[in-house]
Amino acid sequence: MSSQVGTKAGESRAETNDGAVDEASRRVVESVADAAGTAPTALPSLTDVIDPDALDALFAGDRTNGRVTFRYAGFRVTVDADRRVSVVEPIE
Fold first, then answer.
1. For the chain, what percentages of helix, strand and coil (3-state, to nearest 5) are there?
2. What is the Cα 33 distance to its own chain's centre?
């Protein structure tokens, strides 16, 4: 998985889009762990904020449009139809 992490105006951002066909929920957890600098197992359960099976089903096919944004582990997470996962630490 490729990822980019940088800062801009107090934000932490990571994006992944390696073209691999894997579950969106797994990519979310790995991307947030990357952005947080921690192990995926150290994060809270994804099921606390979103149904992982529904997320996986939504992005399993060859979608050409669509986007889901939600908060997870203190980050704003966006999953796009092209399977890109963006993780932004919200400024609060």
1. 30, 30, 40
2. 9
Longest dimension (CA), the chain: 36
Taking residue 86's Cβ as centre, other Cβ atoms within 10 Å add up to: 20
For the chain, the structural domain boundaries read 4-88
Token pair, residue 65, equals 């449009």
Over residues 49-85, the pLDDT tens digits come to: 999 999 999 988 887 889 999 999 999 999 998 889 9
- Give the residue among 80, 73, 88, 6 at the shortest CA–CA distance from 41: 73
**Which pTM does this prediction carry?**
0.76
